[in-house]
Amino acid sequence: MQETNITKFFKRVFSNKTFISAFVTSLLSLLVIIAIGAGLVWHYRANVFGYFAKEYLKEAQSENSNAINAAEKIVEKQSIFSQDSFVIDAVKKTNPAVVSIIISKEVPKYETYIDPNQQNNPFGDLFPNFPGFNFNIPQYRQNGTEKKEVGGGSGFFVSSDGLIVTNKHVVDQKNVEYTVFTNDGKKHGATVIARDPVLDIALIKIEGSGYPFLSLGNSDSLEVGQSVIAIGNALGEFRNTVSVGVVSGLARSITAGDNSGKSEVLDHVIQTDAAINPGNSGGPLLNLRGEVVGVDVAIVQGSQNIGFALPINSVKGVIESVKQGNEVVVQFYRAVSSARI
């Protein structure tokens, strides 16, 4: 019944000429508008395409920029993480082979005493006969000797049988006792095996075997800006102190001196901003692979982060000569003033 009504409705509508005329007119108008719009789009197709292309490129560049920034942040974090990991791994690998050297000496032991038979007038002849102006003044006399620490330095094993590299100025005193403290806290008496006549290098030895030792790198391959690690007995008190820096300069010539007035010229040394303090003398300067590239030797007094190390390639000959039981061969080298550490 409902379908019949709908059919009748459409028949009645389409039989109306006025409606048909209006419908046709509207349809033609719509087609004309579509045709005009299509024509305009076609006419200005280059402009339209350019606009959408620019918008697309802006969006693509924005997404690309965000991706690049995210990638840079990831790379930066990875770089920092990687360097930290290299330093940590290198320190774990090398720390057991770095030692502290303590210098002890028998020094006079003094005591005070008062001799009742020796009275002095502090006013001299001003009141010579005035009673009560004579006093017993304390005197000093030696009462044996006592062992005291008079210095310290650093060193590192270069063989498993206890051979240690250090600076010559660390072990150049006579009538003293050298004690080596290994990283495990044990102490060992040390004997000086050789002192280089030119370089500030010496080798000492302790009894025993199975000691961890360091690998020697190639100091000729160092580049300015390369990361390095210094380990040593900072201030003669803080054993196996670690500091990190970079190679600040190569082939420097310096005149190194100490408080006693001794000085010597050191040539072709490595400059670094890794913190090197008194007591670091003889300690290793390492690359991130844990290889020795230098031996810490001096700092510039009154400066910040200017330290120097002897290149390990100039020390290898001394080490090999001693290992083979030969005399140390003199190496001739040819200045900023600096202080030994």
UniProtKB/TrEMBL annotation:
Keywords: Hydrolase, Membrane, Protease, Transmembrane, Transmembrane helix. SUPFAM superfamilies: Trypsin-like serine proteases. The lineage of its organism: Bacteria, Candidatus Nomuraibacteriota. It comes from Candidatus Nomurabacteria bacterium GW2011_GWB1_43_7. Coiled coil: none annotated. This is Protease Do. The keyword Hydrolase applies. It comes from the Bacteria. GO terms for biological process: proteolysis. Signal peptide: none annotated.
